[in-house]
Amino acid sequence: MTKTFYAILANSLVAALTNTFVWFAVTFWVFLQTQSVLATSVMAGVYIGTVAISGFFLGSLVDRYRKKTSMLLSSICSLIFYILAQIIFSSTSPSVFTDVSSIPLWIFIVLTLMGAIAGNIRIIALPTLVTLLIPEAERDKANGLVGTANGVSFLIASIFSGLAIGFLGIYWVLISAIVLTVAVILHLVTLPIPEQTIIHSEHHTQHIDIRGTIRAIALVPGLFGLIFFNCFNNFLGGVFMSLMDAYGLSLVSVQVWGILWGLLSLGFIVGGLIVAKRGLGESPLRTLFLANIVMWVIAAGFTVQASVVSLAIGMFIYLCLIPVVEAAEQTILQAVIPLERQGRVFGFAQSIEQAASPLTAFMIGPIAQFVFIPFMTTGAGVDLIGDWFGTGANRGIALLFTLTGLIGLMVTLLAMRSHAYRQLSAKYQEHGLTN
Question: CATH number for the domain including 140?
Answer without folding.
Answer: 1.20.1250.20
